[in-house]
Specification:
Two copies of one chain form a homodimer. Chain A has about 325 residues and is of the alpha/beta class. Chain A contains 13 helices and twelve strands. At the A-B interface, helix 4, helix 5, strand 2, helix 6 and helix 11 of A face helix 4, helix 5, strand 2, helix 6 and helix 11 of B. The first copy, chain A, binds a DNA duplex (16 and 16 nucleotides) through helix 2 and helix 4.
DNA sequence: GTGAAAGCGCTAACAC
DNA sequence: GTGTTAGCGCTTTCAC
């Protein structure tokens, strides 16, 4: 029971053969070296007995491939990014890569620093999700020849995969229009868009989808119908409270820009009586299991997490990246 | 604008000095080598200009320290483990280690395989959270001399840090007793415990805390008051529905064993009228922000995630581990 | 069918 | 104050 960790040299000595033979046997290339099945079996058994473990720092140094694949996300404490991590974990494993996920808290400086660290570990490629400065990250990766893809938020200097925000918002809006009912006052007889950041590409496209769907039915959308108050739950809560006071009740329909906007809205809505809730149609871009807790239907656009990452892996694998982002359709989840 | 990645050899040539000097300057040990500030500055400037990046595979191979610290968790799609990942990420960074988190889906075989992979990357230490087979993991780590700690679920073969489950359940139960009101029938005039797995150490201690607090006030607890129906939300929902039918309403108070039990319970409870909800006191071991969506107070034991990981890092850092698990008190979050 | 030997990029002991 | 050198454990020609 050797207490020292064994190397291919130890195994070679024990098996009365050479390190290169052991190496070939252990990494599967022994067939093409035409090593006899006999020695192969002998060495394999020995490795198992000695609980030999490959030193991937050494093998990576030699081959200049680490087998590590990085992903940066804003935070682990968000349901959407939790699902991203989970899918990424599975898909990386399927490709025999070791995932290494780091959170960068939407801080551009931390994003760059983290990516530099990952690069120093010689990651083979990188998935950048929800980055505040995707192009800064790209510059670093480019210089070090690290393949990378932006997911969720697009960048100009690397291939990107995003949700089909315009289509998704349009579908969701159409659903809300179909399920909503006329309201007594003009200000309430309208659809409202709540949450998001107008500087953000995703928000812009969602608003556009909303506007393009509302306009043919109700005429031009007024500025007051778009409340892009940010991604924080508290902001959405405050904004909705104000809206409610201003127009004297809930509107005909309400489209929340993101899952945190929905969370904020629910905090306000949960104390309203059932009749008021049932008079309004609710939609949310982004899906959250707890939305079912509200006592009325919430229609949701569920992002296709696996679809996004599948496309990302294809692009990393060298698929022809056009200059335009790949758009992945989300899925409508009816709340009934 | 060199397109090849630069090494300390390149820098040494450019700076007219030797690789070892460059190495010392770049890794901060140059003071003790008494290298002149002048050369130090020259080399540092050069490194910056060339965007030199340390190859940590090479340096790790040489020093046999990788700077990587691993953590295995059951899943990223759970709020509690999301918080764990986030804290771990921050704390590892503070200690200048690169965190590497892998999910193992409560699958013992996958746990072992994953840990072996992490070890092949020469992780310096490992935090094992919520493992189904902590002792199997310990065996592997022991053989490879990898320092490790169990968190949340204890093991016999490594130091462990767990929530103070007995204390927490007792406090929560006391709160529920204090806030509850008598109910019309004997079966309803009792406290019930819902969720968890009796084979599980954590559940055992929580039940014990519940029983020890209820007994002095109401007399012996009957078996029907303990419904350890597992960790799945759907099971808790079904169990609660059955209980409601059996005893003809909600009981005096209900203690949910875990956050998923709470989620399941809420799915059933959300359709009940306010009066019924307000007649029952709700408690949950584990905290979830969405619990506020219920239209009545839920008292929660919030696990001290930072406290758990702080203790874990101390144990990894070599603090004397007694054979008994370190217990960290959770925090009572009153629902009012 | 197998072995010897060079070298991936870095660090640290030792030399001067 | 700085340079030389020997490996860390592995892979991969090349030689036989």
């Amino acid at each position: 029971m050797a207490t020292k960790k064994s190397t291919i040299y130890d195994l070679a000595t024990l098996a009365q053969t050479s390190p290169s033979t052991v190496s070939a046997i252990l990494n599967g290339t022994w067939q093409q070296r035409r090593i006899s099945a006999q020695t192969a079996l002998r060495v394999q058994a020995l490795a198992q007995k000695q609980k030999y473990s490959l030193n991937r720092q050494a093998s990576g140094l030699r081959t200049s491939r680490s087998g590590l694949i990085g992903m940066v996300i804003p935070t682990h404490e968000d349901y959407f990014f939790g699902m991203m991590s989970q899918s990424f974990d599975r898909m990386a494993r399927e490709r025999r890569q070791q995932p290494i996920v780091a959170s960068t808290l939407r801080d551009p400086a931390l994003e760059i620093e983290t990516v530099k660290t990952l690069i120093s570990y010689q990651i083979d490629s990188l998935v950048v999700t929800g980055a505040s400065d995707p192009d800064g990250v790209s510059r670093v990766c480019r210089h070090h020849h690290v393949m990378h893809v932006n997911v969720d938020l697009p960048g100009k200097r690397a291939p990107s995969v995003i949700s089909d925000n315009h289509w998704g918002a349009a579908q969701l809006t159409a659903t809300l229009i179909a399920r909503s009912r006329p309201q007594p006052t003009p200000a309430r007889d309208r659809l409202y868009f709540l949450g998001g950041v107008t500087a953000d590409h995703a928000t812009q496209r969602r608003i556009q989808g909303f506007v393009d769907t509302v306009t043919p039915v109700f005429g031009p959308v007024e500025a007051s119908q778009i409340q892009a108050c940010g991604y924080e739950a508290a902001a959405a809560e405050a904004e909705l409270r104000a809206l409610y006071a201003r127009i004297g009740g809930l509107p005909r329909a309400l489209l929340m820009a993101a899952s945190l906007s929905l969370e904020g809205a629910i905090r306000f809505l949960r104390v309203l009586p059932d009749e008021e809730l049932q008079a309004c149609a609710f939609g949310s871009y982004d899906w959250h299991p707890y939305a079912a807790f509200l006592r009325c239907p919430v229609h949701m656009m569920r992002q296709d997490v696996d679809g996004l990452l599948d496309a990302a892996f294809k692009l990393i694998g060298g698929a022809r990246g056009s200059s335009r982002p790949v758009e992945i359709r989300p899925q409508l989840m009816l709340g009934d």
